[in-house]
C-alpha cells in the first residue's frame, strides 16, 4: 500500500496533547475577531466541498481585512493542493493536525471534517489553546457531545456552531413574530422538511449514507431544523419519540453498481448522476481518490447504506410545547412547511412548495441557488408568512426573497463572526456549544428512540440541565 494510503486518523490528529499555560491566555473568538489592528489567524481542518467553499474561499473573498489563513489540514494530500488553489491562499498544508497547530499558532480552528470526527479536532484545538468554529452537527453521539462540553469547561475556550439557517431572512422574521407574541403563547409546532430526488439522493451517494460516519440524517441534516425549533420555541427539549425506516435507497433496489461512473444500469436508473460533468468535483474528489479511496459518486443502492430515508419525530419541550417533525429524502420538490399554533391564533410559513411559487426552476437549480453565496435579494419576489388571530382574517407578511446562501443566512452569520462579533443580537442568533449540543441531542435521542422503540429523555444523554426558558 502506498505511504499516502497509510495515513490514518490517529496520525491526522497527532499525538502531542500537553496544554501550555500561555495557550490559555489567548483571546476568545469574539475578542480576537474584534481586534482592529491584527487579523484573526484561521486554520481549517477538512478540505471537502464545504470547507473549501463556505469556510474557505468565501472568507478569503469577503473578510480579507479581518482574517488570514495560516494553515490547511486534511488526511488527503491531493485535496489539500486543490484547496490551496481553489481558496486562493499560500499558507502551509499539513496531514498532521497537531503539527499544524504547533507551527502556525492559529487563533481559531475551523472544523469541517467528517461528522463523526468533529469531536476529536474540537477537543484537541481547545486543549492547544484555540477557539473553534465547527460545521453542524457539532458531533454524532452523546459520549462525544459530553466530551466536547467537558473540554470547553476545562480549557475556557469557546465553540461556535455554524447554524446559518438562524440568520436567514425568513426564519429571522418568524423569530421576530414569535418574540412579539403575535398569536399569543405557542402550544405546538408542525415542521416538515422535504428533500428532493436530487438533493436528498446526494446524501446517500456520500459518506453521509453510513451512520458510523454521519450519525444518520437525524444528525447531519436535521440538526439544522432542531436548532431552529429550539431557537423558535426558546426552551429546551425534554423528551423525544421517533420512527424511521430505510425503504427507498440502499438495498431496496433490484440492481446496483460500484458507482455511477462504472455502472451498467445507467440507461434504466433515473438517479444516474455524471460527476465527470462537474470539473470542480472531479478536481476535488475524483482526481484524489487514489489517496484515501473516498468515492463521491457511490451507488445509491449499495448495501452499506444503513441510515433512514424517512423520519418522524415527536418532541416535548420543557415549557410544554409539543412538536411534530418529519424529514423526507425523495420528494418531487425541495422545500418545507412550518406552523406555530398559539393560544390566540396560528402562524404558517413555507418555502419551495411548487403550486405557491411564482416561477419554476429545476430541482437541481434550487439546491445550487441555496448554496450560492453571490445570489442577491429579488425585489419582485417574496416569501410569505401568514399570521391569523382567532376570529380574525389572516394577515400576509411579505419577506424579501433571497435564495442564495441559505436565505441570506450565510453572509449574516459570517459577518457576525468575523466583522462584528459584538453586534447587538436581540433575537439571539449566535449559537454556542450548548445550542450545538441541544440540537444534536434531539437527533441522538430520536435515533435511540427508533432503535430501542421507546421515548428517550434528553437528561439521559449528558449532564446539561433542561430548562423551560433558555438564557
Give an overview in words:
It is built from 17 helices and 15 strands. The protein has about 475 residues and is of the alpha/beta class. It folds into three domains: about 5-135, NAD(P)-binding Rossmann-like Domain (Rossmann fold, 3-Layer(aba) Sandwich), CATH 3.40.50.720; about 165-250 and about 305-460, Dihydrodipicolinate Reductase, domain 2 (2-Layer Sandwich), CATH 3.30.360; about 250-290, no CATH class. Strands 14-13-12-11-7-10-9-8-15 form a nine-stranded mixed beta sheet. A six-stranded parallel beta sheet has the order 3-2-1-4-5-6, sandwiched between helices. Mean pLDDT is about 90; it is low at about 1-10 and about 15-35.
The fold-level CATH name of the largest domain is: Dihydrodipicolinate Reductase, domain 2
The number of helical runs is 17
Structural class by helix and strand composition: alpha/beta
- What is the residue-averaged pLDDT? 89
CATH architecture of the largest domain: 2-Layer Sandwich
Distance between the termini: 53 Å
The CATH class name of the largest domain reads: Alpha Beta
Q: In percent, how much strand structure appears in the residues? A: 15-25%
Organism: Sunxiuqinia elliptica
Domain Gfo/Idh/MocA-like oxidoreductase N-terminal: 41-163
Protein name: Oxidoreductase family, C-terminal alpha/beta domain
Pfam family, one: GFO_IDH_MocA_C
Amino acid at each position: 500500500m502506498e505511504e499516502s494510503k497509510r495515513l490514518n486518523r490517529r496520525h491526522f490528529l497527532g499525538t502531542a496533547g500537553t496544554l501550555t499555560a500561555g495557550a490559555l491566555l489567548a483571546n476568545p473568538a469574539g475578542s480576537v475577531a474584534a481586534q482592529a489592528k491584527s487579523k484573526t489567524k484561521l486554520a481549517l481542518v477538512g478540505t471537502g466541498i464545504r470547507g473549501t467553499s463556505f469556510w474557505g474561499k468565501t472568507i478569503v473573498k469577503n473578510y480579507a481585512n479581518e482574517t488570514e489563513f495560516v494553515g490547511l489540514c486534511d488526511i488527503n494530500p491531493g485535496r489539500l493542493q486543490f484547496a490551496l488553489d481553489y481558496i486562493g491562499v499560500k499558507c502551509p498544508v499539513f496531514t498532521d493536525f497537531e503539527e499544524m497547530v504547533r507551527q502556525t499558532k492559529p487563533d481559531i480552528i475551523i472544523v469541517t471534517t467528517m461528522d463523526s470526527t468533529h469531536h476529536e479536532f474540537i477537543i484537541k484545538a481547545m486543549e492547544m489553546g484555540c477557539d473553534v468554529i465547527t460545521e453542524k452537527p457539532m458531533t454524532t453521539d452523546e459520549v462525544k457531545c459530553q466530551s466536547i462540553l467537558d473540554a470547553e469547561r476545562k480549557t475556557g475556550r469557546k465553540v461556535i456552531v455554524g447554524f446559518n439557517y438562524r440568520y436567514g431572512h425568513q426564519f429571522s422574521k418568524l423569530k421576530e413574530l414569535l418574540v412579539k407574541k403575535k398569536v399569543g403563547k405557542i402550544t405546538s409546532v408542525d415542521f416538515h422538511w422535504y428533500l428532493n430526488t436530487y438533493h436528498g439522493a446526494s446524501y446517500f451517494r456520500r459518506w453521509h449514507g453510513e451512520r458510523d460516519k454521519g450519525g444518520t440524517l437525524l444528525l447531519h441534516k436535521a440538526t439544522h431544523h432542531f436548532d431552529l425549533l429550539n431557537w423558535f420555541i426558546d426552551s429546551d427539549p425534554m423528551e423525544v419519540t421517533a420512527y424511521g425506516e430505510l425503504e427507498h435507497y440502499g438495498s431496496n433496489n433490484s440492481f446496483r453498481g460500484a458507482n455511477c461512473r462504472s455502472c451498467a444500469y445507467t440507461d434504466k436508473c433515473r438517479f444516474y448522476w455524471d460527476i465527470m460533468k462537474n470539473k470542480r468535483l472531479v478536481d476535488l474528489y475524483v482526481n484524489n481518490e487514489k489517496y484515501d479511496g473516498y468515492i463521491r459518486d457511490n451507488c445509491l443502492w449499495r448495501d452499506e447504506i444503513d441510515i433512514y430515508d424517512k423520519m418522524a419525530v415527536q418532541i416535548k419541550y420543557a415549557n410544554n410545547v409539543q412538536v411534530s417533525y418529519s424529514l423526507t429524502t425523495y420528494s418531487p420538490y425541495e422545500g418545507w412547511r412550518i406552523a406555530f399554533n398559539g393560544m390566540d391564533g396560528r402562524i404558517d410559513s413555507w418555502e419551495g412548495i411548487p403550486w405557491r411559487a411564482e416561477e419554476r426552476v429545476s430541482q437541481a437549480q434550487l439546491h445550487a441557488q441555496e448554496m450560492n453565496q453571490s445570489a442577491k435579494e429579488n425585489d419582485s419576489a417574496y416569501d410569505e408568512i401568514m399570521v391569523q388571530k382567532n376570529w380574525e382574517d389572516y394577515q400576509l407578511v411579505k419577506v424579501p426573497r433571497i435564495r442564495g446562501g441559505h436565505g441570506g443566512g450565510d453572509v449574516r452569520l459570517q459577518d457576525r463572526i468575523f466583522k462584528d462579533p459584538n453586534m447587538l443580537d436581540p433575537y439571539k442568533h449566535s449559537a454556542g456549544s450548548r445550542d450545538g449540543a441541544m440540537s444534536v441531542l434531539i437527533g441522538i435521542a430520536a435515533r435511540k428512540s427508533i432503535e430501542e422503540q421507546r421515548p428517550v429523555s434528553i437528561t439521559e444523554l449528558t449532564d446539561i440541565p433542561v430548562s423551560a426558558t433558555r438564557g
